[in-house]
């Protein structure tokens, strides 16, 4: 009992609760009985002791319907309401169509906009994702070095993120995320090492992009149109591709052989020829010229090279968002006389809309 409650009041509250339970009443009826008897006690205190003394009276929530089904029924309810039907008629029609009986109060709240099963999610599931070049770019980036994981420290958070030192790449990824999720682009966050990170939370994108990537799951979105295919490949090469300093080598690498084979098939479909992928076994050394360090591969890596005669087509159809990679490829093509000076490159990245000073 709350502190300061007189013993006689305490005894009368307990007695009222026992009587209410014997008669099949709830705590509200017990509180009203107390008020009629002149006992001044809050309903919150009566509720607390009602469930404290009689825990078996706690109502257990039943199983939830699948979220996709709830959202589908929600949109059907709004559609029927828009036709001028009343709440009871809507309930009967929903039961006829889905075999599910809705509480009339639920239908009323949905129609009045008090609440809905979307629960604030912009894209509640994969079913509601629409194919677009922006979504294909996001898929390509996350299939490479991007991250799709579930945050174990905070339940219910599904993280989609990318980290890189090329601000134009991070900004483009943020722009595409904003377009896909129907929100303002997330702002890249500067890191102490001079890189930038973009992070959003989306269960739908996590279900699609969790690794290892399911090629069959992303196919309908990537192969929706040629523009979507090109956007996917540009995102993948931005993330996993590289161009040697002299531009002689254009390649991409990944540890997932199925993904590499899928990328190879898409390139061939656009007329971009590649060599057979090369396998670098786990435990072999890897020298990074840009970092000046040697690493040991933690797993088998599959490398795909674009043939020299197809680099111009790659440049014209796909290209890079990352400026330094695009410039290396362009300079190589200029040396061979395939691109003229002053010619505007395709897929030219826009200049950064903001600038960060990394923390030291």
Structure report:
- The chain has 4 domains: 7-57; 67-112, no CATH class; 129-215, Roll (Endonuclease I-creI), CATH 3.10.28.10; 238-335, Roll (Endonuclease I-creI).
- The two termini are 55 Å apart.
- The longest helix has 16 residues, at 7-22.
- The chain has 14 helices and 10 strands.
- It has helices at 7-22, 27-36, 43-53, 67-82, 87-98, 104-112, 133-143, 167-181, 203-209, 215-222, 226-240, 257-269, 311-317, 323-335, and strands at residues 147-150, 158-164, 189-190, 196-201, 241-243, 250-254, 278-280, 285-288, 293-296, 301-305.
- The chain is α+β, with helices and mostly antiparallel strands and 360 residues long.
- Residues 349-360 have low confidence and may be disordered.
- The strands form 3 sheets. It has a 4-stranded antiparallel beta sheet.
- Helices cover 45% and strands 12% of the residues.
- It is elongated and about 100 Å long.
């Amino acid at each position: 009992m709350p502190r300061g409650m007189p013993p006689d009041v305490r005894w009368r509250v307990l007695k009222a609760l026992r009587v209410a339970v014997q008669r099949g009443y709830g705590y509200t009826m017990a509180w009203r009985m107390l008020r009629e008897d002149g006992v001044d006690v809050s309903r919150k205190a009566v509720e607390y002791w009602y469930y404290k003394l009689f825990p078996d009276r706690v109502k257990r929530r039943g199983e939830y319907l699948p979220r996709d089904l709830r959202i589908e029924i929600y949109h059907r309810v709004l559609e029927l309401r828009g036709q001028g039907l009343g709440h009871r008629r809507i309930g009967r029609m929903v039961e006829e169509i889905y075999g599910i009986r809705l509480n009339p109060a639920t239908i009323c709240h949905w129609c009045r906009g008090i609440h809905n099963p979307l629960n604030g999610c912009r894209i509640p599931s994969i079913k509601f994702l629409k194919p677009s070049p922006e979504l294909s770019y996001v898929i390509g980036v996350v299939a490479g070095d991007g991250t799709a994981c579930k945050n174990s420290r905070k339940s219910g958070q599904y993280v989609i993120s990318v980290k890189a030192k090329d601000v134009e790449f991070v900004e483009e990824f943020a722009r595409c995320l904003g377009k896909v999720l129907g929100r303002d682009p997330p702002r890249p966050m500067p890191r102490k090492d001079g890189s930038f990170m973009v992070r959003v939370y989306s269960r739908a994108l996590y279900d699609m992009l969790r690794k290892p990537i399911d090629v069959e799951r992303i196919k309908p979105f990537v192969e929706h149109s040629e523009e979507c295919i090109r956007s996917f490949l540009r995102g993948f090469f931005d993330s996993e591709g590289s161009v040697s300093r002299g531009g002689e080598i254009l390649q991409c690498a990944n540890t997932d052989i199925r993904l590499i084979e899928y990328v190879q098939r898409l390139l061939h479909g656009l007329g971009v020829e590649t060599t057979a992928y090369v396998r670098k076994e786990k435990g072999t050394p890897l020298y990074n010229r840009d970092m000046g360090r040697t690493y040991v591969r933690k797993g088998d890596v599959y490398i795909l090279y674009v043939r020299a005669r197809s680099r111009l087509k790659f440049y014209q159809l796909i290209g890079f968002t990352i400026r330094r990679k695009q410039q290396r490829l362009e300079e190589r093509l200029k040396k061979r006389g395939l691109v003229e000076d002053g010619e505007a490159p395709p897929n030219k990245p826009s200049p950064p809309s903001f600038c960060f000073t990394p923390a030291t």
